[in-house]
Amino acid sequence: MKQLLDRFLIYLNIQKGYSPHTVDAYKSDLKDFIKFLEKANISSIENVSEGVIKKYVYSMRDRGISKRSISRKISSLKSLWKYLIRFGIATQDFTQFLETPKLEKKLPIFFSSEEVDQCIACLQGTSSEKRDVAIFELLYSTGLRISELISLDVGSIDEMREEIRVIGKRDKERIVILGEHASRLIREYTQEYREKYKSNREKALFINARGGRLSVRSVQRLFKKVSKLIGKDVTPHTLRHSFATALLNNGADLRTVQELLGHSSLQTTQLYTHVTVKKLQEIMDKVRF
Predict the structure, then answer these.
(1) Higher pLDDT pick, 107 / 258
(2) Is residue 169 annotated as a catalytic residue, yes or no?
(3) Residue 26 has pLDDT above 60, yes or no
(4) Catalytic status, residue 272
(5) Which region holds residue 199: left if phi is over 0, alpha if psi is between -120 and 50, else beta?
(6) Counting CB atoms within 10 angstroms of each CB, which of 84, 120, 144, 259 has the fewest?
(7) Which among 72, 169, 174, 225 is annotated as catalytic?
(8) CA of 133: how far to CAs of 13, 119, 136, 162, in Å?
């Protein structure tokens, strides 16, 4: 089973073009399933049945795993079985009738521009200030995902047009508008930080002190540090939510926001309309007519 998992992960990476972050998520989910099989003394795919799969789902509930995590693990299992069927490794899809738990829709957390300024103020005076400030401003003013941010190259930015060419999920390319303020901060970072640590062979826009491409983990550490300093939980996705909410609150239409965020479905973008309605209700409650 472990060999099958390794082959499946290679397939996701090479054939499907999934990002390392996505492949790691599949790996984590499916390793949990393999652990369950090992405890049940099941070592080959031939011994897995519909009953075994159902017992695994029940075991997750018994272990107190959240509905969201169960839903994700079931989705990973379904993807694995599609792979097994496609390449003739399995003849029956035991996951097709599995039902994922119904999830409560959570409104995305977002920050005001003042709160973002508070985050940026925490970064002043550090050795990597220019880089870190540019990262925060770029995420807030463009809504980029963390994976999209670290994959940016110097050539991704068109300074004349103030645009960024972004490669998003499923290798879909989109153009994102780069505001004047973010453009200036990136120039300052490039001149004062990147030039200092750059390697002639490294084309990445954001680099570390060794001159290599900045990693997801490094950016996550940066956000954890800021969260601790301001006493609020802030993540790259918080800034992405803040970007979308600010656009809608200032009159942008859903289709435009969908395009800028790189959402494949308008339904995903519609979640932000609930945020703006909630904000409107708060304003109405404060105003007497």
Answers:
(1) 258
(2) yes
(3) yes
(4) yes
(5) beta
(6) 259
(7) 169
(8) 32, 9, 5, 18
Q: pTM of whole model > 0.70? A: no
Q: Which residue type occupies 179?
A: G
Q: Whose structure tokens read 């304003």?
A: 283
Kindly report which listed range (117-121, 144-148, 195-199) carries the lowest average pLDDT score: 195-199
Catalytic residue among 130, 145, 194, 241: 145
Select 2-86's CATH number: 1.10.510.10, 1.10.1060.10, 1.10.8.60, 1.10.150.130: 1.10.150.130
61 catalytically annotated: no
Catalytic, 187? Answer no
From 55, 12, 11, 5, select the one nearest 30 (Cα to Cα): 5
| DSSP for residue 128 | T
**What is d(CA 212, CA 235) in angstroms, rounded to the nearest whole number?**
23
Strand partners, 164: 157, 176
237 is catalytic: yes
CA 254 – CA 231 distance, rounded (Å): 32
Task: Please pick, among 56, 83, 140, 272, the residue that the annotation labels catalytic.
Answer: 272
Both tokens of 273, joined, read 């309309």
